[in-house]
Amino acid sequence: EIVLTQSPGTLSLSPGERATLSCRTSQSVSSTYLAWYQQKPGQAPRLLIYGASSRATGIPDRFSGSGSGTDFTLTISRLEPEDFAVYYCQQYGYSPRTFGQGTKLEIK
Amino acid sequence: EVQLVQSGAEVKKPGESLRISCKDAGYSFVNSWIAWVRQMPGKGLEWMGLIYPGDSDTRYSPSFQGQVTISADKSFSTAYLQWSSLKASDTAMYYCARLVAGFGSYGAFDIWGQGTMVIVSS
Question: How far B118 CA lies from chain A's nearest CA (Å)?
Answer without folding.
Answer: 15
